[in-house]
Amino acid sequence: MYKINIVCTGSLKEQYFKEAQEEYLKRLSRFCDVKVTEFGETRLSSSPSTSEIATALDKEYDIISSHLKGKVFVLSLEGKQYDSEAFCKKLFDSFSMSDTITFVIGSSYGLSQKLKGKYDNICFSKMTFPHHLVRIFLEEQIYRSFTIKNNISYHK
Amino acid sequence: MYKINIVCTGSLKEQYFKEAQEEYLKRLSRFCDVKVTEFGETRLSSSPSTSEIATALDKEYDIISSHLKGKVFVLSLEGKQYDSEAFCKKLFDSFSMSDTITFVIGSSYGLSQKLKGKYDNICFSKMTFPHHLVRIFLEEQIYRSFTIKNNISYHK
């Protein structure tokens, strides 16, 4: 069975995001094992300096690194953009080499350069969205990939 | 007061999308009047031909056209991509010329070429998402624009 790890910041606060995630994870359970690992966001002051942010991201890098398995993708604004068909292809090309794929979603301040430099970067949108909403984008798009791969009718 | 029209297909079915929309519309009410106009999606067979789709989109074009006011943007995969800062600038540049802005979100089959040819096209993501989820992207991003414009602290 395909295994997908989603490594992301904090637990979903909004009830509507919790329920959206629940729905997509339920749909995905037909196709793969999904594990969502939530790591705690490093607390920062309301106006942190660049070096305070960098230190926090380095600390998060260590935590995130301990959860990485198989092929790793990080979601970042600088990443490569894929349409849904190409993302599906990328996903299953990766599964042909590893039965586990890990996606990492950063916090409000993003992800450390060390992490971004080490793994494939994917950009879902040039726009900035709340990271909890990005988690829903990712789960929906993984589900869409399985429907494309299995030729299952789904919203176009 | 700024006025925003969102013209889109059908009513939100999923409770979690309804609640997410409610939250963003509540937040937006501080800054602008938002009107969401939902038009009925033309019914098509499960495997419609290209010409059946074109006919349906032309029919939807007539309905959509009757709801357009002020400056119009259509959301399409072929549209221009903006980051959040640039989208904010585009929004307020448009408000400087018109107190009303209309955004159009198509159905599963997209929007007619006539409509896309006539107005500015914006692309939120190269990936295809359910149009109900795209509505949440749009509402979140409009809210984000107001926080950027008003220098209000919000998720980065």
What key attributes describe this structure?
5 strands; alpha/beta; homodimer; 43% helix; Alpha/beta knot
Going by helix content, strand content and strand pairing, the class of chain A is alpha/beta
Provide the helix percentage of chain A: 40-55%
Strand portion of chain A:
15-25%
* Strand order within the widest beta sheet of chain A: 2-1-4-3-5
Mean pLDDT score of chain A: 94
Say which CATH homologous superfamily of chain A is assigned. Answer: SPOUT methyltransferase, trefoil knot domain
User: How far apart are the termini of chain A?
Assistant: 26 Å
Per CATH, what is the topology of chain A? Answer: Alpha/beta knot
User: What count of structural domains of chain A?
Assistant: 1
The low-confidence parts of chain A are none
Number of helices of chain A: 5
Largest interface, chains and sizes: A-B, 33 and 34 residues
The protein's oligomeric status is homodimer
Give the topology, please.
The structure is a homodimer of 156-residue chains.
Chain A: E1 2-9, H1 15-28, E2 32-39, H2 50-65, E3 71-81, H3 84-95, E4 100-105, H4 113-118, E5 120-123, H5 131-149
Parallel strand pairs in A: 1-2, 1-4, 3-4, 3-5
Helix pairs in contact in A: 1-5, 3-5
